[in-house]
Amino acid sequence: MMKAVVHADWTIGTINRNIYGHFAEHLGRCIYEGIWVGEDSDIPNTEGFRNDVIEALRELRIPVLRWPGGCFADEYHWRDGIGPKENRKMMINTHWGGVVENNHFGTHEFFRLCELIDAEPYICGNVGSGTVQEMADWIEYMTSDADSPMANLRRANGRDKPWKLKYFGVGNENWGCGGNMLPEFYADLYNQFQTYARNYGDNKLYKIAGGANTDDYRWTEVLMKKSERHMHGLSLHYYTVPGTWQDKGAATEFGDRDWFVTMKKAAYMDELLTRHSTEMDRYDPNKRVGIIVDEWGNWFNVEPGTNPGFLYQQNTMRDALVAAVNLHIFHKHCNRVQMANIAQMVNVLQAVILTEGSRMLRTPTYHVLQMYNVHQDAEALAVHGEFGQYGFEGEEGSLAQVGVTASKKDGVVHVSLYNVNPSEAADIEVELRGLDGGYSVEGKLLAASDIRAHNTFEQANAVAPQPFNGAELKGGKLKVSLPAASVVVLKLK
Ligand code: AHR
Questions:
Q1: How far is residue 23's CA from residue 389's CA, in Å, rounded to a whole number?
Q2: What is the mean pLDDT of each run of 10 residues along the chain (493 residues)?
Q3: From ligand 1's centre to the CA of 70, what distance in Å?
Q4: Residue 361: count of CB within 10 angstroms of its CB
Q5: Which end of the chain is more exposed for a tag (fewer CB within 10 A), N or C?
Q6: Is 75 a catalytic residue?
């Protein structure tokens, strides 16, 4: 029996709800078809947004949504996406499939989407192919209440009051698709662009500098040294790719070895956050600057027969476990990680929703994010223990078999657990230190008889949360029996 202690009277920080953020790019069928179908569509919609998807996104309680990219952000020119739709300029989406983008989803539509799903907007500006003036004008257009050219243009396009915009990214992956820059050059550009990203009225921007690719600690070092005083957040992108970038592995056809490698690579997020944060400590020991993990998740080969530029992949119990592993790591680093955005929201990479015509399904990843949203804005509790080891013969390394994270809010404690072992159940005893008696426990479980289990348009609820009866609370101790490859959230009240 594994043993752990949850210290109910020892908080390690607040879990910023934005750790449960999402990302929607003009890529494949994420925005078009997945979210936006237009007012004239046969698919039931509100002002062009599909009703089924909006409802599912609302239920998920998404705190913040990043848009318009990704790589697309550094070739997006915001003026193309405002005004009467029939007059909007078309462009080629050169990064993603070379398709023609009609710009029917632009700034006004994005803010409306955020209102409909009750999420805060996070906009990423164009550094790679844009100008300082273009970025400055966009911010004025969105947030100024003055009698000024950009605010008046917004009014002419039907929006009188400025929107509230806090999170603003100055470029995306500027080490790669955002301009192939060296960190020194990007840091100078960042300093220049952000100077003109003004605060209008009481709108205060939280400026996010484009951060490192995976383990490029030097990028972080240079950015902190040259730009720390001009930023509130620094981004980090890391995708879990079980194979190589050329052959990433299939989303549904995988074996126990692939499962192990995927879990090990997902757990690597912990080392990345520790080391980037340590680098940042040299210039920011008080952790004023947040790490913004604004792209994370599984990246597999596209589903056979689909456009390689659309990044459409299915989503199984493996994705559910990878989501849980990452969320536990973000909780652990909640003093530094102030936002994380899973990539991407609908029909792209590790999506929470998939659509096909008028049909929609919630993926196993959706269910984990929904089960875990009870941790949003709660106090993270210290957790210690022995969590077993999970390895695979012939493969290097191992990782903890069981993960435990806990938080407290309004007198309610939530303890979430996962078991990454695909074939062995795990029993764990969790001592709840510092918790008064009188609590009862109830829980939810996500598990399936096959690790490749997933939802299809024919069987949309094949994988769905169930009530959990495997937890017992007695004398301040929780005994939990976790099935193989499972995720559990317990509520102690
Ligand atoms: O999410 C897909 C792509 O991955 C994004 O556009 C880019 O920022 C990253 O490389």
A1: 33
A2: 96 98 98 98 98 98 98 98 97 95 98 98 98 98 98 98 98 98 98 98 98 98 98 98 98 98 98 98 98 98 97 98 98 98 98 98 98 98 97 96 97 97 98 89 97 98 98 94 98 94
A3: 5
A4: 23
A5: N
A6: no
